[in-house]
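Exercise (ungraded).
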Amino acid sequence: MTAGQVVLILTLAVPAAGAVAVPLLPDRVARITGTGAAGLTLLASVLLYAGRGGTSLEPAAPVRPWHSVRGDWAPGLDLQFHIGVDGISYPLVVLTALLTLLCCGYLLGRPDGSRMLVALLLAAEVGIVGTFLALDLVLFFVFFEVVLLPMYAMIAIWGGPGRRAAARKFVLYTLLGSVLLLVGVFVVVAAAGTADIVALTGGGQLGRGTQLLGFTFFALAFAVKAPLWPLHTWLPDAHTEAPTVGSVILAGVLLKLGTYGLIRIGVGVTPEGAAWAATVLGTLAVAAIVVGALVCLAQTELKRLIAYSSVGHMGFVLLGIATGSAAGIQAALIGNIAHGVITGLLFFLAGAIKDRTGTGELAALGGLRETAPGLAGILGFAAIASLGLPGLAGFWGEVFAVVAAIQRGSPGWTVLGVVAAVGAALTAGYFLRLLRRVTHGPPAAVPVAPAGLARIELVAWAPLVGLTLVIGLLPVLVLGMAYGPVEALAVGVGG
Amino acid sequence: MLLPAVPFGAALAGLLLPPLRARAAAAVLGIAGAAAALLLACGLLVALDQPSEQSRQLVRFGHLAVDFGVRVDSAALLVAVAVGVVALAVQVYSVSYLDGDEGYPAYAAQVSLFTAAMLLVVVAGDLIVLLVGWEVMGICSYLLIAHDRRLPEAPGAAVKAFLVTRVGDVGFWLGVILLGVHTGSFRIADVLAAVTGGELSTATLTAAGLLLLAGVAGKSAQFPLHTWLPDAMAGPTPISALIHAATMVAAGVYVVFRLYPVFSYGDGVLPVLAVVAAVTMLLGALAATAADDIKRVLAWSTVSQLAYMVGALAVGATAAALFHLLTHAAFKALLFLAAGAVIHAVGSNLMSAMGGLRRPMPVTFWSMTIGLGALVGVPPLAGFWSKDAILHSASGGAGWAAGLVFAAGLATVVVTAWYATRLWLRTFFGLSRSEATAHDPPPLMAWPVVALAVPSGLLGFVALSDGFVDRLSTPVPADWTGAAARPDALPAQPVLADQALVHAGGFVLLPLAAAAVGIAAAWLVWQRDPATDPARALGRLRPVFEREFYLDGFQDVLVVRPVRALARAVRRADESVVDGTVEGTGRGTVSLGGLVARAHRAALPRAVVAVLAGALLAGLAATLGAAL
Amino acid sequence: MTQAIDHVALLPAYLAAGTALLALLTDLAVARRAATLAVTAAGAATVAVAAWAVGTGPVRDTFCLADAPAACSFRADPTSALVATLFALLTLGVLGLSGYAVRGLPAGEYCFLLAASMTGGVVLGYSRDLITLVVALETLTLPLYALVGLRRRSVDSAQGAVTFFVVSVVSVAVTLLGAALLYAATGAVHLRALAAALADGVPGELTTLASAGAVLVLAGLVFKVAAVPFHAWAPATYDGAPLPIAAYLSTTSKLGGVVAVVYVVAIGLQPWLDVVGPALAGFAVLTMTVGNLVALRQRRMVRLLAWSSVAQAGYILAPLGAFAVGTGRTSDALALAVTATIAYAVFYVMIELAAFGSVVVLRGGAVMPAVSLASLDRSDVDGGEIEQYRGVARRSPWVAAAFTLALVGLAGLPPGLAGLFAKIVVVRSLLGGGAGWLAVIVALNAVIGLAYYLPVAVRLYGDRAAAEPAAVPAERVAGPGLRPGWGAPLWSGLALAATTVVAIVVGFAPQLVLDAAALVAG
């Protein structure tokens, strides 16, 4: 077993061990242990970069993991424990590890006993990272399901007043997605006789009919998760009620399971299906952009607004994927990461504002730059980043999703690209409206306490602020390692 | 490549400064950043004899590469110098102007960022990089306009500024994307080579040109996207100077200059540009005649002066356009900073609260006089030379578009002279209408004003120097790509107008006469009753001008309200229809469960009957199935 | 007609029957509950070991027809061994849970009846003709009528027992009618002989008769698995029965039905899958849908579990529903479907036992000492209302964790990996058999299922108000009936722990179950 393989296993084993250990320890120790585990996971995930294979630009084998581990788990289920990391999954793995660590760290600074929350975060991390690493369809599904309950518990137990209904809606809706994924997985496996993603990528082993059917299920499943309009309505409720860390993980990485799945499995395994459904997917994605933006314009609650903004942003990501071209998929990848970082930050901030003022109603907020200038400054930064300001992380995904759409050349796609660009302008509209309501204007009647930023908050947010800037200036950090794999995928779609 | 980096570094450092007790450091950083950028630009201007281009691949999307590319040539450097001068003046001026403002450190950093963004646009060698600078400027303008927390209208104005320009930017984005997709590269040199090489269809070029134009109209405040600029006066006065003189609004004009072939090779793009310029020119000037807010007058004058540059571009006088850009930068910055001094002294923006300030504020008075003179085009001040060059080019241009620009330009000269005189008289002459005892500003504010008076007065003479025209001329693609130009590939396109900036002859008398008419008219009206506003002479048109042709209202009714209503409707639909379906499914399932459960609340006999019936049915079904 | 009887093959059945007798004798001789229980448990363990041991040996047929050596009534092969072992182990588990229960019940009768039922189950595993099958199944079921009614002074208990009895009798009658029709049409009762006869072709005028017979046999058998429309007895019966017996009913009795159905379908009716396929698919769809829908509206814990077990029966039958389509009737698909059914059943019984075990332990045993019975509220002696479980995790974290794991497993989600794999098995076999539409229905039902499992799990942890210092002591909030988890007898706790551990182990190593289930198919 090589060092790379050991590290690969550690990225899953460490949080798993942490999730098991944390509930057994007394609160303070448990939270420190959990944070430590999350830290080690981040370290392990970063180390995965070392010793990677050459990132050749030639489209060779469609999936060429840098490191991989393969072992039989349950052959009777076509289930292999086959995990690996490549340029497509690596940034997402690191992002997951980072956000989990930040959330754990953030909880360290909270007064109440929240060790179970730490345990759930780690459990969710296992599922999310596992999904990104899985190179076996059935294993992918298993990890995909692992995420569900920890997330549910986070919302249902630590959420706001409407948490029950929101959590139920979340879990049932997304379970609906994942059972359809299960059906899709076995549509493919039954036809191909294998669940190995590496072998299946490119779709060579599958007939056209199977690909179309399989992709239909995959698309539905991932569309619920991503979420794609009109399958998105679980998201605003879940976000509004979830505790801060829950929202951060939910928006930051959970939604990426859908888009990643669509890239890795939808486009990878059933490329003909992806090409066949591209127009529908693209149209819905653009609808998501526009609807998301318009709903945000009329939204009155802070977290709900950010949640709907996610619908719009994921619309750009899905538009990129729908084009099926290398440019589009790359746009989707960087859009994924950018959204994770920026919206993660936004939810941290929304949580901080709600903690301080006790309300998330825009009408009740105001003048934050007078009462809490630091908070207002970071909120302004995050909002500006989220509206896709060039030079910050959010820009690349949006503009190149539009580029990819226009590159398709047909009038229909051009129209989609143009509408998406208009949607981007609307995005600016609602974020400025948000800033105007929350930070500008006369100070609101509600007290803001404390006005300053706690050290733990700064520590938790600074990496996100920094990443937003760094990815914005050097997008190649995220995309450089994905050139080869993405082009190989795009060849399959013929885009 | 260092050029934008310096102020950017200053901005970054400035934003990270601890907010308290950082005033001095912030001031030093801001000033040093601007000064370094200026020095660098000057140094390069002197040292550089050949255009130089450097680039590094930033990232690749599919086969489309994005380079961090900069291209420095003398035209870019001249604009960069102007940016540096104005930025430095503004930074120095702000130290004093924002004395006692808690938000100063952030402000100074944002000004640095603004400068950096503009410089990035100026030297960008890649369309995406250009876009970055372009949009960062937008957000800086937003932040800075909203800076003044005592003004309730400031946040709204800031939002308006950003959104209106953003609407235009959608077009700009799409134009850039269209060019990139069709030429396979975002590198400006490649794009221009492809354009002049005839690789793109005319339709594509036209589409791209018009789309880019939308962005230009937004940034450079051209009709119909000009509405943000007057409102942007809610920002601190130095910011107005910065926005109006060197950054933001100049960017639009500069980009047309930089990408000129895209516009000139397209079909019908230049005439559109001409119409826009003509409308904006008059519209801005007329709106300026009735405004009472001194900054608003200057703002409308910016709108109208920018239209001159756009008009010059429309008739092919690119050098004249850029020349006017430079002179305008000097005198408009001067005017705003001087107006700031006046406002500082009087405590009000309104001219109805000023008057008779000539004596207590001599430095300001003389500076302002130079600035206004330049604006009107009084020889030998800077504005005279550049405006004359534009009008001359337009008069010599062929086609109705040139004629339109010329006619509108000449009419605007009259109006400009009229409102400039009105401003001059209302502010500095007559009786004082304010209780405050006015005095000249403190040195930190006075120096920049005086310093800017120099180029405002003398910049025009540069046009006499040899080679200046060449420095300002449109980039020739061959020069960009390093390949030999292929004249045979150039389709017959509107040939660039006469690029010469200086003309001898009777023609100069025409604009001079026009200006004299305007001045005289204003003076005559004012003289009859120095206490009242000469705008009264406008009669019934006055409210129309004052309300700025009700365009804000149109914009509100045509765009803002429908979008808001649509947003509300979509939200309702999303909640009741889309989510309603989901919730309904859930509720439906549960109530179905209730129904089925009720059916099961049966006593023993019915259970037995159910079993027997089930068996019977199953048997029957099988029997029938077998029989068929 | 003389027959050579292979007594080795019969050994597990002998031992099972002996256990029953021994339990009765021990009770008479020693009259101590612990001793009776221990003897029965030891007997069940011996049966398990013996069945396994015999199963590892060569295949042994006995009670064969002299003229047709392939047609035997009793066959000891790995399949039989697996089934017999499972029955013995499940009985052992239920006995463990009964530790507390028998205090209020006559231990001798209790253990005897349980062992007798086990005997039926063991014999069922070995039986290969319709008559033996029905007899074994009745042996499995008959003692349960008595066990269900064992809770004295309980109207519910009596009512449950009567319902169970009457409906059961009807269903047996239906089965026998079906068997008779089949016999009339083919002249065979042995499953293999039946298969041969059907494969040879039934005379045209008898086809209708035979197909009705086939479906009626099935209809009677699915009664045992409580499939719709033969399910109405289950909720009332479960709720009326002592908790360990409810657990037994929902696991062992159901397993018996599944085994019977699989034997009949996969061996006897194999040539006629096109006839029984649609019926099975119909049963499966109806069962899971109705079970899930009704479970949504349950307030009482045992009723919820009962309805959920109805729904689970639908999933168990679902793979067999693949026979309704042509691609599902190939021999590969048949093996896949049978494996999936058995595997799902095995996963299910483990998790279900753990769920009931948790309820038993949380409720502190099903039956209180008789003296205190009158003074206690009705809810003390059964599963109670779901609402009464609110916040029990605070007092019994481990039991609550086990219960949660079981509930989540039933819903088929991680960390209940066993349940997840069970779901995967079913979907895989359905798609392998080409019945994609049925897979989608299963998938949708899984979503409905989660809608009622999760709220229960959340209640265990819920009620933050009780955690606040000012709140009423949890004891009073929960009502007097809920005993702290550790107050339950050690044996119940151990049985629960063992079941949970087994469920976790197979969750990580599902291949064990799949291999075992593949034996049945092979």
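Further reading is listed at the end of the chapter. For now, observe: Chain B touches chain A through 54 residues (CB under 8 Å). Strands of chain B lie at 52-61, 64-72.
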